[in-house]
Design a protein that fits this description.
Elements: H1 9-17, H2 26-38, H3 42-52, H4 57-66, H5 77-80, H6 83-86, H7 91-97, E1 106-107, H8 125-138, H9 143-159, E2 165-166, E3 177-182, E4 185-187, H10 188-199, H11 204-215, H12 227-240, E5 248-249, E6 255-256, H13 268-294
Parallel strand pairs: 1-2
Antiparallel strand pairs: 3-4, 5-6
Helix pairs in contact: 2-9, 2-11, 2-13, 8-9, 8-12, 8-13, 9-13, 10-13
Length: 295
């Protein structure tokens, strides 16, 4: 029904290697997976621990290096959820996992109004969740099933970072630059990865406490495959809102790229902090549901 806009190899390379603005920053991934793990049943927590024990020493070292830990630090699910990003700079890993580069995001046409299953048939973020959920469910305890677990943890955070469901021509907001830097961030994607979360001025412990306090107040339906498209659409509707400052919508509901550099409104962080908090909570709860059904 809709034709997907795929990045050229050049743009794809930029998306993969431009750090830190490509994927939800490691802090966000850490929060999502820690919270999800904390709310798993005891038996499912043990299953996660057993899968982490199958991660080869070389990949354990890669994860720990990425998280600024000593190479022999025991893996936690929270830290291991950064693995899909951590392997990118490693040449041998790149060759093995190159097929997953486009799985971190979903690119759609600028005239698309709503994400549906027709929006992507393969090699994109919603399909990545479907693939690795099924692989985790069907596999015995092995490095292969551990990979599925780590990918799943990563994908659930990525799909809730709104700009991972966006447009190829501006690299998901990486090319929407600021007239004035916002903290350390000079583009919109990087801001949503890092600087918006930093604007809360909370420690990891404070983030976890805040999200835990909201856990029982937010209902999450049991996981079904159709939900991945709903999650993608939730992110997509966020980026198309004028206040997000990513789209200039025409009368035909086409999202035009803003002209020139943008300036975030003075209340931008205040308005969107509750939004990113809800996205992190949704990602955590939905990941818990998937793991309870798949492990």
């Amino acid at each position: 029904m809709f034709k997907i806009l795929y990045c050229s190899l050049f743009f794809s390379g930029l998306m993969v290697f431009s750090q830190p603005s490509f994927a939800l920053a490691k802090f966000g991934h850490n929060i999502v997976c820690q919270l999800a793990f904390d709310h798993l049943s005891a038996s499912k927590k043990q299953n996660v621990i057993e899968l982490l024990q199958t991660v080869p020493k070389t990949h354990q070292a890669i994860i720990n290096h990425y998280n600024h830990l000593s190479k022999n630090t025991p893996l936690t699910f929270a830290n291991a959820c950064t693995w899909a990003d951590a392997i990118k700079p490693h040449q041998k890993s790149q060759a093995t996992f190159k097929q997953y580069q486009s799985w971190h995001y979903l690119n759609v046409p600028r005239n698309l109004v709503k994400i549906t299953q027709a929006s992507c048939s393969n090699n994109c973020l919603p399909q990545a969740i479907l693939h690795h959920q099924q692989q985790l469910k069907d596999s015995s305890v092995s490095w292969q099933s551990a990979q599925a677990l780590l990918f799943l943890g990563h994908w659930l955070a990525d799909i809730h970072q709104p700009l991972h469901v966006s447009y190829a021509s501006d690299l998901g907001g990486n090319k929407i630059t600021f007239a004035k830097k916002e903290g350390q961030c000079n583009n919109l994607h990087w801001y949503w990865d890092t600087c918006l979360i930093q604007a809360a001025k909370r420690t990891k412990k404070q983030w976890l406490a805040s999200l835990n306090a909201q856990w029982s107040k937010s209902y999450t339906a049991p996981y079904q495959a159709k939900h991945v498209w709903q999650w993608a659409d939730e992110s997509y509707q966020l980026i198309r809102a004028p206040r997000f400052q990513y789209c200039q919508l025409t009368n035909q509901q086409v999202c035009l790229r803003p002209q020139g550099k943008i300036r975030l409104t003075d209340d931008y962080a205040e308005y969107y902090l509750p939004v990113i908090e809800q996205q992190l909570l949704n990602a955590s709860q939905r990941l818990t549901r998937i793991l309870e059904q798949s492990l």
